[in-house]
């Protein structure tokens, strides 16, 4: 069921981040449970027009003046034609009084060309996120990736020659038909292309995916313990090659952390535009919306002459202080840097020492086991108290969160 945005839910903001969803794929990977639809003939121009109309409308009603960061994700944004990508990017930038601190576009290696790289660069994009996942053909075939080792290596070589911005690459540990030695060899090759940022995931087998059904039926073998073991090997390899783990699944060279994803982890404001996209604006009472995932309904609404806040086809949720507090803890403890006690107190009016049981409770027990720590950090010339999980403790993040929430 879809619930309209009410006028009393409109929150006024200034500078927020923007996420744009391109929910089209030539072929869906067997492990993917994100919203996307098959698309063999390119992204419809009407969809781009609808997205731009939504962005302009939400910018107007929330009185947004600038985009802090921009992220175009999917789906497969690299299915956009160069003309569509240029139109989308340049019009997004035209709606901002100042340039975003970071502008990212996701691409599939199969779609990388000199033209699309040049268009992205000339249209204001300064960060490329490339979904490599693996350079092992057997593993790629098993999970129905449409790119091969060769096409991915060709894409990485082209990026190395033509791309002047920042580069982030994705890799997955524990893919079926990829042992630990093959995984590390693949990761080493990925690192050899000098990305500033790597997202390293341990394969999660989600229900209602083709991979889940294949594993359940016994056609494909998957060992979750092996996946976790490979991930730890990958983490240690990345650390030994100068990457800093700053979040559960994210590693970066110094000062190359993802600014856009940090918006999510710090519970900061972002607009989500596109079919299936989610946006969140926080405050004493915040709002969250998730747009309809019926692309035809989404497009027809935003291209109609009867656009109003009350009729937007989306589900909405009121974010109470209690919900925001829980999410702040859930997201903040994903970060190795942890949660600033003063920020928590300012935002929620509570003492984090008492909330977490830091003296004689849950957090103190995690400290005793070496899985958590409290440390002091200088922020704007002032010493601040920080609560964080250790490198070992973050491996048990879900257990920790269950205990405090």
Describe the structure.
Strands 9-10-8-7-6-5-4-1-11 form a 9-stranded mixed sheet, sandwiched between helices. By secondary structure, the protein is of the alpha/beta class. The protein contains 15 helices and 17 strands. 37% of the residues lie in helices and 23% in strands. The mean pLDDT is 94.
Radius of gyration: 22 Å
Number of helices: 15
Q: How do the strands line up in the largest sheet?
A: 9-10-8-7-6-5-4-1-11
Strand elements, count = 17
Which whole number gives the mean pLDDT?
A: 94
Terminal CA distance = 28 Å
Name the poorly predicted regions.
none
| Shape field | globular
Structural class: alpha/beta
Kindly estimate the percentage of residues that lie in beta strands according to DSSP. 15-25%
Helical fraction: 25-40%
Tell me the major beta sheet: 9 strands, mixed
Features:
single chain, 405 residues, alpha/beta, 9-stranded mixed β-sheet, 3-stranded antiparallel β-sheet, 17 strands, globular
Question: What is the compact description of this entry?
Answer:
The protein has 405 residues and is α/β, with parallel strands linked by helices. It has 15 helices and 17 strands.
